[in-house]
Amino acid sequence: MLNKEKILNALEYALPVTLFDVTDSTNLRLKEMCRSGDKRLQLLCADHQTAGRGRLGRSFLSPENTGIYMSLLLPLPKDDLPLTIRAAVAVCRAVEEVTGKHLLIKWVNDLFLNRKKVCGILAEGVEDMAVLGIGLNVKMPRGGFPGVPIAGALEADEDREALIGRISFHVLKTMEEEKGSILSFYRERMLLTGKEITFMHSGQEKNARVVGVDDKGGLVVQTAQGMEILRTGEVSIGSFQVSAFE
Ligand code: BTN
User: Fold this and answer.
1) Ligand 1, closest atom to CA 56?
2) Which fold has domain 196-243?
3) For residue 15, what are the contacts with CB-CB under 8 A and spacing of at least 6?
């Protein structure tokens, strides 16, 4: 069960906050609220999701008491740097501030600690706004994450409310921040730079070496045919858990 007062104390901004013990998906709830006319910037959190949504149509396991499942209704960014890049930076900053733990970023917006994914981010458009969903595993659930060997947890002792409040604060701050400083933070934490990856292009698997991240958050890769910039989708490394960190 989450405590609203504690979230508001950590948040600093006067933002409407709605808490659910359980819901299907905080992203779905917030999209529904927006479509029915409630377009206030706001935060919605659940202690437990029964149908947490991940990127690329996947699901996101969201057991009770151990994780953070939060969605923010936001305006679209004012520039061409995607919201998900801003959010990855904001979560890294908040986690470090609250727990001292140093997360790494796998392009575009998966966050890793000790070679395990501890946070996923899903941004979805609704009307003329964006719903930014963040799922962060704070503690390992008793049964682990069945079928998701890459998943791990922060194993932080701090209150989930402090993390929710500070993540929201840092997301709102990055919305006002000029993109140069966001990008330099992102590039420092990006664990794919210099690695060999594979990605899908027109239905074909291609190999490449990651050169870096461009000014719009695209992944710059060197293939046998020349330089390419990946804007969406997913990249993988042969045995990612091992090689991406070596
Ligand atoms: C991913 O890793 O593919 C993205 C996962 C995003 C999960 C969060 S949890 C809060 C919000 N509500 C959802 O249904 N999904 C996002």
Assistant:
1) 3
2) SH3 type barrels. (2.30.30)
3) 41, 42, 43, 168, 172
Tens place of pLDDT for every residue, the chain, 246 residues? 899 999 999 998 889 999 999 999 999 999 999 999 999 999 999 999 999 999 988 999 999 999 999 999 999 988 999 999 999 999 999 999 999 999 999 999 999 999 999 999 999 999 999 999 999 999 999 999 999 999 999 999 999 999 999 999 999 999 999 999 999 999 999 999 999 999 887 778 889 999 999 999 999 999 999 999 998 767 776 544 333 443
CA 134 – CA 210 distance, rounded (Å): 26
For residue 24, the ligand 1 atom closest to its alpha carbon is 14
Domain extents in the chain = 4-188, 196-243
Ligand 1: lining residues by beta carbon, under 6 Å: 25-27, 49, 52-55, 58, 60, 69-71, 120-122, 133-135
Taken in order 15, 16, 22, 23, the sign of the CA dihedral is: negative
Q: Is the CATH code 3.30.930.10 the one for domain 4-188?
A: yes
pTM over 0.85: yes
Rg of the chain taking only CA atoms, in angstroms:
18
| Nearest residue by C-alpha to atom 2 in ligand 1 | 120
